[in-house]
Specification:
Mean pLDDT: 88
Shape: globular
Oligomer: single chain
Helix content: 25-40%
Distance between the termini: 36 Å
Structural class: alpha/beta
Largest sheet: 3 strands, mixed
Length: about 250
């Protein structure tokens, strides 16, 4: 079935929850499986359906936590986007964040992609592991762009991510996550979202700063944005080309 099928079924029954959230909940409970094609899902076979009928996607994380209960291992970035239902396919290896300065368990290093990142918001319990809030994921993208394994995947889902973070009951989380971070992070985030959410970009962008790098300085610059004074070395496309008509019309 498709996410459009889910949307029609929900609307016919007066359910206002978005199709992506319904799909994520059904997948989380083991009733739907992803197919690797965006927006296409399938029902789990009877023998494998239900919350205990499939291989757990974060079993390596759970095993590491059993051996190191105080390790503070949080599912992050694209793995978090998948856990929240924004991506149809999970990364080959779970992406997890540990606190800066912490020791990485050897088994976790072998089986997961590990980055160091300090979140401000509480994590959410999904798939029986701790998962970064969507606002945390968005700020992480702007804090350490080199932590992202596939910017192509991120740019594809970015309109959905920004829309979710800007919902009325979620936008405060973004400002909580941003509050203690330096001006460079706010600048990168403004640059990243200015095509999708120009009003938000104007709100968070600091004034009076020098050039801010989006990605490693050693790479060739793909583009320079004079409005935000950002030298971009990693994004596969100019983020200003992305549009979300709903967000822009709301801002107007």
């Amino acid at each position: 079935m498709t996410t459009d099928d889910l949307r029609r079924i929900a609307e016919s029954r007066g359910i206002r929850t978005g199709a992506a959230k319904i799909a994520a909940a059904l997948r989380d409970r083991g009733w739907l499986l992803t197919t690797g094609t965006k927006g296409i899902l399938e029902f789990a076979p009877g023998a494998h359906a239900g919350p205990f009928g499939r291989v757990h996607p974060f079993r390596a994380v759970q095993a590491a936590l059993l051996a190191n209960p105080d390790a503070g291992i949080d599912v992050c970035l694209n793995s978090a986007l998948w856990a929240h239902g924004l991506l149809d396919s999970a990364p080959d290896r779970p992406e997890v964040a540990l606190m800066p300065g912490s020791r990485v368990p050897n088994a976790l290093q072998r089986q997961c992609r590990v980055v160091k990142f300090r979140s401000c918001l509480p994590t959410l319990r999904l798939w029986d592991v701790q998962v970064h809030d969507l606002a945390t994921v968005l700020v992480h993208l702007a804090t350490t762009p080199k932590d992202v394994c596939s910017w192509g995947v991120v740019m594809e889902v970015l309109p959905t991510l920004v829309a979710a973070v800007m919902e009325a009951d979620a936008i405060d989380n973004l400002f909580v996550e941003l509050a203690p971070r330096p001006a460079s992070v706010r600048t990168r985030l403004a640059y990243l979202v200015h095509g999708l959410a120009p009003e938000l970009a104007s709100t968070i962008a600091p004034a009076g700063h020098g050039v801010v790098w989006f990605g490693p300085r050693g790479r060739a610059t793909k583009r320079f944005n004079s409005t935000y004074q950002v030298a971009d070395t990693v994004l596969p496309m100019a983020p200003g080309e992305l549009r979300n008509d709903d967000l822009i019309s709301d801002a107007d």
